[in-house]
Design brief:
Bactericidal permeability-increasing protein, domain 1; alpha+beta; Protein takeout; 4 helices; 8-stranded antiparallel beta sheet; elongated
Length: 201
């Protein structure tokens, strides 16, 4: 199974890549105008190596694969600085946060090409496209409204009444970070391999 390799980044002799579980994101800055501004720092995502493959479809004419995986439970934590409008509330705060995601689906669109080198054609990936489809989510943002206990509780309740509002704001930035890392890891894993070696007839 590839799960331990994803966590460790060790894919065999000469195939070492950064581990993806836990997956760190140093910083995400999201500015959608006056209604939503958020900075996330020191973010760590745990649980991605526990994926379950739901569907694989090979697309031979386009040299690629469409893959859907399920992440049973994913934990995300880090630091936030937030200013957003939700349910007639102006939420502001700065501090640590935790997020638990359950039953998340990730759809991958993977395309490859053959790179000529020294008389051979080597396997290489185009930038991997991916998209999250979130199901259950539970946020906890500490220190909302400067730590006022009552307002902090109200703020977290407002977020968790419809957590997808906040998730959809940060989703594109998360996807962009993961696309870059996964493409780099995938190309490291198949480095110096031909199509015949990886996809024999």
């Amino acid at each position: 199974m590839i799960r331990p390799n994803i966590a460790s980044g060790d894919y065999g002799p000469g195939r070492k890549a950064p581990g993806l579980d836990p997956y760190p994101i140093a910083q995400m800055k999201i500015d959608h105008g006056a209604s939503f501004k958020c900075n996330l720092d020191d973010v760590v995502i745990e649980g991605v190596s526990k994926f379950e493959i739901k569907k694989i479809r090979q697309n031979i004419p386009e040299k690629g694969f469409n893959i859907t995986v399920r992440l049973p439970t994913t934990f995300v934590h880090g630091k936030y600085d937030l200013n957003m409008n939700i349910l007639l509330l102006q939420l502001t705060g700065k501090g640590p946060f935790n997020l638990t995601l359950e039953n998340t689906l990730v759809n991958f669109k993977i395309r490859y090409f053959l790179e000529p080198k020294d008389g051979k054609e080597y396997f290489k990936f185009h930038p991997i496209d991916l998209r999250f489809k979130f199901d259950k989510a539970q946020f906890y943002l500490k220190n909302l409204f400067n730590g006022d206990p009552t307002l902090e509780q109200i703020g977290n309740q407002a977020i968790n009444a419809n957590p997808h509002i906040l998730l959809e704001e940060v989703r594109p930035s998360m996807e962009a970070h993961l696309k870059k890392s996964l493409t780099a890891v995938a190309n490291k894993v198949v480095e110096n391999s031909t199509e015949q070696e990886l996809l024999p007839p």
